[in-house]
Design a protein that fits this description.
With about 290 residues, the chain is of the alpha/beta class. It has two domains: about 220 residues, P-loop containing nucleotide triphosphate hydrolases (Rossmann fold, 3-Layer(aba) Sandwich); about 40 residues. About 35% of the residues lie in helices and about 30% in strands. Helix 4 runs parallel beside helix 6. The longest helix is centred in the middle third of the chain and has 16 residues.
């Protein structure tokens, strides 16, 4: 059966570029994001992740390039394109002095939703993420994880096909982070296309169907997490020397890794493990995901 590429790709990005004075923050980026996938942009702070997402979601203008959202040109058919999008920025844009319910009502009114529909829609969304006991609490009184959940629900009011999540779990503890992972998976299982930026290796590996590695405003590679790891090798050998530095060697299989480790002297601490996305990132860019 022949696949219709136009139907398969819900977002098509060609050559988008953003400059801030003399600095090129995003440099002629091309992307195709498939309908129904979770797509991640992985890279260190300052790599261009957030700026790329802000251009695709119309929050920042492009200096060059084009973006198609579900067949609609983001510039020429902006209302149709924007109607497909829900955006949750890293810094939560909720009124902290209003209750959760009041914030959701405000968002529904911004989308010109009739009173009867918004009442039922807000209740459905509250039930969707078990928000009931928090509905009449002020946003300021919630934990970071629940604030993020409310922000996501607010972005779902108008039933967008695509959700952008910019560093969704930054600053959250591991329990709250994994709770949000469950919500992202639930949204995706219900048909929503998810695009997220992150610098957490574990997050990208656990959530994303495909990952784009970005550095200095350029896409270095795009593939599934496992295939990206395989470009480096299936097995990594970490060699920690007593002077504090660490070397990494990569091998196709564990037998080759074991054979190499057997040649090392006793003053080297050796760890043999599966490769991960950070290995791939370091190999492609020469720096860690943390930017060091």
């Amino acid at each position: 059966m022949t696949t219709n590429t136009a139907d398969e790709n819900i977002i098509v990005v060609k050559g988008i570029t953003k400059r801030f004075n003399e600095k090129v923050a995003v440099d002629h980026v091309d992307l195709e994001i498939k309908r129904g996938e979770i797509f991640g942009l992985l890279g260190p702070n300052g790599a261009g992740k957030t700026t790329t997402v802000r251009m695709i979601s119309s929050l920042t203008t492009m200096d060059e390039g084009s973006v198609m959202i579900d067949g609609n040109d983001l510039i020429k058919q902006s209302n149709e394109a924007k109607g497909c999008l829900g955006v949750i920025q890293q810094h939560i844009s909720l009124d902290k002095d209003l209750t959760v319910r009041e914030n959701l009502i405000h968002h529904a009114m911004m989308h010109m939703m009739p009173r009867a529909k918004r009442t039922s829609k807000i209740q459905d969304l509250a039930d969707y993420v078990s928000l009931g006991e928090y509905m009449d609490k002020t946003v300021d009184s919630l934990s970071g994880g629940w604030k993020k959940r409310v922000a996501i629900i607010a972005a779902l009011i108008h039933e967008p096909k695509i959700i952008f999540l910019d560093e969704p779990t930054a600053g959250l503890d591991i329990q709250a982070r994994r709770g949000l992972w469950d919500l992202v998976r639930k949204l995706n299982n219900d048909g929503t296309t998810i695009i997220l930026t992150t610098h957490y290796i574990e997050e990208a590996e656990n959530l994303c169907d495909r990952v784009g590695i970005i550095d200095h405003g350029k896409i270095k590679a795009i593939d599934t997490p496992r295939h990206l790891c395989e470009t480096v090798g299936n097995v990594a050998v970490e060699c920690k020397y007593h002077d504090g530095h660490t070397d990494y060697k990569y091998f196709k299989n564990r037998d080759d890794a074991n054979a190499y480790s057997a040649t090392l002297t006793d003053d080297v601490d050796v760890l043999i493990r599966k490769t991960n996305l950070e290995d791939c990132f370091v190999k492609l860019t020469g720096s860690s995901v943390g930017g060091v």
